[in-house]
């Protein structure tokens, strides 16, 4: 029984001197982030396949129980739409091989235009993937949430492949108008996704978007505290990623979420204590 928590990235300028020492070489930032959280979203791989040596450095900076949810490149999911992508897919799989079991799942985020009529394409793609990895799919077309038949169709395909459905919960964020510049920017970019709390596998993965106000973020995740505690009692090992529009407090919020779940499930092991960070000075 284990709960992994993390953020959308492992370094952010506003974290310097708070969660990460400053100055700190780029190749050391993941190591210090891993003192706060035990998982991270691999969003950078969406834009380009990393060098294998770069991925190997990620393993050197993290403990064996740290987990990455690594996003497939957009060349595969958005440009190729899962068809005719054997070459970039193999290059990606080769690049991330050093992660080994640290790769909790390979994340197949599909564009909003990927509709129920495209599910057979996803089914063919999943059948061709190596069984050495777990897979998790994020869809954004409204029909998968509004139409029960479309949802069942997708669930059947994912179930056959033992793949998970990643919900991106933005309901708390869109409950009321934005109040900060970061929220106003996110208001135009983030998808308005319905709430989905059903897990398909023993390794559910959730992405949650709160607000820049901590109290509202915490209030909005209470149903996830209940759901996550329930999953743990069932013997599942979930992963929760905490987002806010500015992500300024995301590492601390991720730890707070873990603490709230642990209060419900006392057998859950605590996160390790982060290395103290010296405060920034003027000189």
TrEMBL record:
Cite the SUPFAM superfamilies for this sequence.
TM1631-like
Superkingdom of this protein's organism? Bacteria
Could you say which residues form the signal peptide? none
Task: Give the originating organism.
Answer: Micromonospora echinofusca
| Name recorded for this polypeptide | DUF72 domain-containing protein
The protein's matches in Pfam families, at most eight in alphabetical order, are given as: DUF72
InterPro entries recorded for this chain?
DUF72, UPF0759_sf
